[in-house]
Write a structure and sequence with these properties.
Elements lengths: L2 H9 L25 E14 L3 E2 L4 E2 L6 E12 L1 E4 L7 H9 L6 E14 L4 E21 L4 E10 L1 E4 L2 E4 L1 E8 L4 E2 L6 E2 L1
Antiparallel strand pairs: 1-7, 2-7, 3-7, 4-6, 5-8, 7-8, 7-11, 9-10, 12-13
């Protein structure tokens, strides 16, 4: 290499290499097409249990050694329920009802032609309660585009009828709930009978 060529290389400024930039996030002229719509039910839990106390009599007491009895000849009405989040679309409850095989439009009254009688133990307060057997299904209703659906939570409670002869009632337990103190704490659930 000649000295003149070497000097020419040394005096050339070092410019940064030119790079090309591509933006792949948007392609002109291509628009998103309509998405595939669907409505689906996602069940997250399905359980059966005795529900919280429902008082079906007044509270009575046998304080100061007195004897007391309590009876009931008619009961309380309980109906199936469906609680859905605030973003539900029209038809959501029908879809859940059909998907889960539940009839959510039924109600019952516990009605006996014979009365139920309980003796309250000495120095206690007592109330007759119904503890209905419930099937509770919880989950999500997924609506909209299948690749990005709107999720709305729901909870559905259903009860069953039970009967013998002329008597009919909601499946579950009817019992005496007692306490040494007033108000009476729930036998099942959180709260107090007043």
């Amino acid at each position: 290499m000649k000295a003149a060529d070497y000097d020419a290389l040394e005096t050339v400024s070092h410019a940064p290499a030119q790079t090309l930039s591509y933006n792949a996030t948007r392609t002109p002229g291509i628009n998103r097409r309509g998405c595939q719509q669907s409505t689906e039910v996602q069940v997250t839990s399905d359980e059966q249990f005795l529900n919280w106390d429902v008082a079906i009599s007044p509270i009575a007491s046998s304080l100061q050694g007195s004897s007391a009895g309590i009876s009931v000849s008619n009961g309380v009405e309980i109906s199936n329920s469906l609680a859905i989040g605030s973003e539900i679309t029209v038809g959501g409850s029908d879809i859940i009802s059909v998907s889960l095989g539940m009839n959510l439009d039924m109600s019952w009254s516990t009605s006996q032609e014979n009365s139920l009688e309980f003796d309250i133990p000495v120095n206690m307060y007592g109330v007759i309660v119904s503890q209905p057997f419930v099937r509770r299904v919880q989950g999500n209703l997924l609506t909209g585009c299948t690749d990005n659906p709107t999720r709305t939570s729901f909870m559905a409670d259903t009860y069953e009828s039970q009967g013998y002869g002329q008597l009919s009632w909601v499946k579950g337990v009817i019992r005496l709930c007692t306490s040494e103190t007033y108000p009476i704490p729930y036998c099942i659930g959180e709260g107090q009978h007043k």
